[in-house]
Amino acid sequence: MIDETMFEAEEKMEKAVEVAKEHFAGIRTGRAHPGMFQKILVDYYGAPTPLQQLASFQTPEARTILINPFDKGSMRAIEKAIMSADLGVNPSNDGQIIRCIIPALTQERRKEYIKMARHEAEESRVAVRNVRRHTKDAIERFVKDGDVGEDEGTRAEKELEHLTKKYVDQIDDLLKHKEAELLEV
């Protein structure tokens, strides 16, 4: 019973770390990468469709990304979606591909992105702590109901604290890496 609860808690904590990774990938650095366009939805024939499903991406240079739509008729909609996504890029269309040149980040913009990254990291830490709280409540309920002994409950709580620290440390490491990446000129 406790093992199942601990397994579920670990899965949820892993999921929180994965969400943090995804959010960090969406925060752009000075380099071009397809993850910047991950959350962009394009109005494709009336249906909001993720840009990743409508085009392929290439990065021939560090600050240039080429978007090659599978359906050339969707180029205008893709351009419009990129412009409205507030990525700080201005797409140009040559009829075959869409070229996005990533401008160099200003110091002010870097600080803004670092603030966003810290906020995302805190959101993920809170998610991990919420999982810990719910799991701890479940363990205490098992002990109270007599389903497990107090020693086993105490052992499980210590293991839960260890798990929580492990995943919070992973989130902190991701944040530290992202901040270093953003400050790199």
Explain briefly what this protein structure is:
The protein has helices at residues 2-26, 51-54, 75-84, 107-145, 150-183; strands spanning 41-44, 47-50, 55-61, 64-69, 90-93, 98-101.
Give me the CATH fold name of the largest domain.
Topoisomerase I, Chain A, domain 4
Class by SSE composition: alpha+beta
Order of helices and strands: HEEHEEHEEHH
The strand order across the widest sheet is 3-4-6-5
Indicate the CATH architecture of the largest domain: Orthogonal Bundle
C-alpha geometry: elongated
Number of domains in the coordinates?
Answer: 2
Which regions have little confidence, pLDDT < 50, spanning 5+ residues? none
CATH level 1 name of the largest domain = Mainly Alpha
User: What is the percent of helical residues?
Assistant: 55-70%
Counting DSSP H or I runs of 4 or more residues, the number of helices is 5
Q: For the terminal residues, how far apart are their CA atoms?
A: 51 Å
Output the CATH homologous superfamily of the largest domain. Answer: Ribosome-recycling factor
| DSSP, total strands | 6
* Averaged pLDDT: 88
